[in-house]
Structures are given as C-alpha cells and as structure tokens.
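Hi support team,

I submitted a single chain yesterday and got back a structure, but I'm not sure I'm reading the token output correctly. Could someone confirm the output below corresponds to the sequence I sent? I've pasted both exactly as they appear in my results page.

Thanks,
R.
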Amino acid sequence: MTSEILHHSRRMPFPARLRVVLFMEDQILRLGVQAIMSGLATGVETYFAANEFDFIGKVREHAPDVAVLTAANRRLWTVVGDAGGVGETGSAGGVGGENPSPRLLLVIEQHQTGDLAGLPADGYLIRQDLSAAGMARALDQLAAGEMAIPVELGRSLIQQAAAAAPVKRRGALTSRENETLVLLVRGLSNKQIGRRLLISEHGAKRLVSSVLLKLDATNRTSAVVKAIRMGLVDEATLADTAN
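Hi R., thanks for writing in. Yes, this is the structure output for that exact sequence:
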C-alpha cells in the first residue's frame, strides 16, 4: 500500500499551507478519515502513511504542522521524538511559528476518555463521533496554537468527576494561576500566556510549572484533565475553546 497526498481548496481559516501526516492501521477508520479529509479545507496537504515506518519517514520528510494517530499508535510519537523528530507534546508551540514541532492529534475510542492523562497529546477526537466539522475544528484550533478538546469529551470528563473520588492536589491555585490554567486549557504556549497576562515568557513558565506542581501533573495534558476532574474548568470554558 502506498502513502497518499490530498490537496484541498480553501474553506477554513487555516494558514496558507497546513501539512498533516496521518497513520491508522484500521482500514475502516482510514477510509473514513480519508473521506473526511477530502472534504476539508484548503491549502491543507494531507499525507497518509502506509505503515509505521512510513509514518516516521513522512514526519521527518514533510515536517508536518499536525500529526494524527490513534491511541493504539501513540508510542510512535515517542519513537519519533527519541529520534529528534519532534519536540515535547503539550508544549503548544505555534504552527509554523514559535516552535516548528508538529502538534499531535489523537483519535481515541469512547472507552479511553477516562485515561487522557496517560495519552498526552495536543488535541483529541473521539472515533465514534468523527465528523468533517469536528476534524476541521480540531485542525483549526491546533493551527491557532490552541488545544483541541471536543465539548462532548469535556462534558464526559466533568460527569466522570462528579462520580469519582476527589483528585489530590498539593495546594489551592492563586488567582493568577487560575488565569494561567484557563489559558493552558486553551492550549496556549508559554510565550502566548505571557502576552495574555502581560508578563515575560519566563514568568509564564514559572506560573505553568506552579500549576502543574499543585495539580500533581506530569505534563500539560495531565494538568488539563485533572483540572476538569477537580471542577476547576467548567463547561463554559470548554465551550469557549471549541469556538
């Protein structure tokens, strides 16, 4: 099976050129995603990898803005990273801007929505809810340097939080840290957070580190998931990230 590239006409406010590399072993899912991508926007260059090795090669060859994997193949991102092909997932570098590292979009199963902390990524789509609108919105958010979490997924996490035992944290967040948390949920980088809060990038980095420490989170994705489960992020904030 050979890899494929699809070019689309401009319909969404993506950058002049958005490169997306995708790999999924499930042929039914692959065909469905191919159909979705063929109806998307503009200036999007879509490269479907034929296998794991082809995916790694395409990431290195095309330096994509976004890579799309399933949860089952999440380990490939670690392999590419170990080889120096990508930066740290969750750093929220701007597409084609502040940080050239690609952003990772994971397609997960419905039953995996409770384990996002163990599947760090810059955005998520639920396989059972895949649609052209959802894919376009996720790519648009990632292209804008934001985190892509479907509202339905956020609501699911909130519902799980209501039925689960309280999640441990090491201290209450200050008002400044709460502002930082909201910007983390939106997927902003340290530089972008600094601009929003009118502080230096170094100051923003300290705030982010403090938020992760207090939430006992190992990365940004884990911090966002824990914040939702603690009730620190409401549906209005999640809905705002989807607009």
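A quick pointer for reading it: The two ends are 37 Å apart (CA to CA). Let us know if anything else looks off.

Best,
Support desk
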